[in-house]
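FW: tagging you since you asked about this chain on Friday. Here's the raw sequence from the shared folder, copied in full. Didn't touch anything.
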Amino acid sequence: MTPRSALLPSNGMTHYSVDVDGVSHGDLLKVWGELCKPSPKVHPAFTAVYPHMTTMRGNRFHFRGGDAAVVKKKLEELLIDALKSPVKTTVVTQ
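HL: got it, structure written out here
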């Protein structure tokens, strides 16, 4: 039997990605690293996004579970606030 990727894993959680445009990979990596540091004041959008995040590769964030539209919106809100410049996010289903 050949292994295959699952569009819907056995636990029922969907997988999807969110692409971020309008920022370089280096700047995105730096900002995301800062957002992940412990802080007494955590951005509310971060707490909505982080529990569903699995990995980040380039300008693509990978997620498991949650509402893709809500996670996309919250990630965009978070990054615009952190970068102080506009970004565009797009959901990519797998």
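FW: The longest strand covers residues 15-21.
HL: agreed, and The chain has a mean pLDDT of 90.
FW: great, closing this out.
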